[in-house]
Amino acid sequence: MKLYTKQGDTGKTSIIGGRVDKDHLRVEAYGTIDELNSFIGKAISELGPDKFKDVIKDLTAIQHELFDGGGDLANVMKERHYKLTEQPITILEERIDVLSDEAPPLKRFILPGGAPAAATLHIARTIARRAERQTVSLTKEIKDVSPVVQKYLNRLSDYLFAAARVVNHRLGIQDVEYIRSADVFK
């Protein structure tokens, strides 16, 4: 099987049920989800399986869910069956609570960074926010977009923040507070 088809050479790409320009909002949104998925894979590669078995398990499940969500955004078939459901959102919320309870209390904004895996998770968090914004834009233009993807991305960015903090905490690396931040978390 060849990896190249030459069908995209004219600036169009195939999606599920049609073809669109490569810069279409739909392609931007699911393309950003693909970028996010790659950074999550990078974070997994930076985590030691002994200290982070639970986080690796979470992130691996998230990678599959991102494929589902990206596929849902790429689907323009008249009869759609979305793969991403509300269940992973509930699981993310549960995991956010567990991870937030493990990390030290947070009073101020923090600077992204710390251990390499934590820094990568912060990058993934910002990409998740961008994917969410692009999904909002897509939803405004095209009404028949799965609302679950947008909600999932919103919750995922919170999870990635909590996970980055736990990675630093388990490694004994203190988060660096933004020095001009007021106490915003009470």
Automatic annotation (TrEMBL):
Show the GO MF annotations: corrinoid adenosyltransferase activity
Q: Which UniProt keywords apply?
A: ATP-binding, Cobalamin biosynthesis, Nucleotide-binding, Transferase
Against InterPro entries, the record matches this protein to:
CblAdoTrfase-like (IPR016030), CblAdoTrfase-like_sf (IPR036451), PduO-typ (IPR029499)
**Which Pfam families does the record associate with it?**
Cob_adeno_trans
Reactions performed catalytically: 2 cob(II)yrinate a,c diamide + reduced [electron-transfer flavoprotein] + 2 ATP = 2 adenosylcob(III)yrinate a,c-diamide + 2 triphosphate + oxidized [electron-transfer flavoprotein] + 3 H(+); 2 cob(II)alamin + reduced [electron-transfer flavoprotein] + 2 ATP = 2 adenosylcob(III)alamin + 2 triphosphate + oxidized [electron-transfer flavoprotein] + 3 H(+)
Record-annotated Cobalamin adenosyltransferase-like domain positions: 3-167
- Tell whether Transmembrane helix is among the UniProt keywords: no
Q: Which pathway features in its UniProt record?
A: Cofactor biosynthesis; adenosylcobalamin biosynthesis; adenosylcobalamin from cob(II)yrinate a,c-diamide: step 2/7
Q: What is its EC number?
A: 2.5.1.17
As for family, the record states: Belongs to the Cob(I)alamin adenosyltransferase family.
Can you name this protein? Corrinoid adenosyltransferase
